[in-house]
Amino acid sequence: MSKKKASAPSSTIALNKKAKHEYHIEDRFEAGLALLGWEVKSLRAGKGQLVDAYVLLKDGEAWLLGAHIMPLNAASTHVIADPTRTRKLLLHAKEIARIVGQVSQDGYTCIPLALYWKQNKVKCEIALVKGKKLFDKRATEKERDWNRQKQRIMRDANN
Question: Which of 38, 59, 67, 145 is 20 to 30 Å from 137 at the Cα level?
Fold first, then answer.
């Protein structure tokens, strides 16, 4: 008999769950993140949040604002840790130009969707989004409820 492998821990650090409810996601990008040592240690411990974070495009560079990385007591003893400091997003110039072109149009904005590990590096998934209207949010919720109900019906029919 073969032994079961131990399941690898999830590579996702933080999700912006509100984003799918509030916005229509148009386009996704993967960006690197310039971090300090204590921030990486905190993210390994799962102490990151993207609740009110957004992406600022300025002078041909992309910056992550509002992301909260809680400092660990043991890891940040020799520095003054700012949990909500502005962090640089590492993107190619073509990607930044494309994002700037879209954001300059009416209704588009750029927000982070997730922080995750890719090999040994922290990546941030950012997206170009358009805001949803109230009736869009209700339609999405109605569709989600119907899909859940369909799954229950199918499960009960098979038993």
Answer: 67
